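[Q] Does anyone have a clean structure-token version of this?
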Amino acid sequence: MTPSQAKKLEVEKTLRLSASPDRVWRAITEADEIGTWFPDSISWEAREGGEGWFGWEKYGRYSVRVEAFEPPRFLAWRWAREPGKSLDDTDTTLVEWTLTPRDDGGTTLHLRESGFKSEAYRDDNDGGWDAELGELLELLGEPATAMR
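[A] Here you go.
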């Protein structure tokens, strides 16, 4: 795979939010907050090395492990590609969240997911992130135009 092909097999999203970095951090790390916009159910330890799962009634439970936890600036988790499998028993992708404070008190959120084995998997998650991040915008009271 060439470097340009590898780059193509990533999802990248940027949100320009009026919410503070601390508020956005809570929305992406606290189980009761994540559960309102991302999975239907969640069990995880929000700390580096913490493990758990994200669950969707329609799709199943996906194993997850927190790879980096640097409040309130950077979060990375690795998750299973297939439901009901451990991280060692299936392909995984890495989801990285970078929160950058702005002078106006808001936050620029950059999401990057990498490690896809095929364009089809990448495309599935790209569309999924559009929907899920739309729900995050709703939770934070942000307009849909905040997503670029």
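[Q] Thanks! Anything notable?
[A] Residues 119-140 form the longest helix (22 residues).
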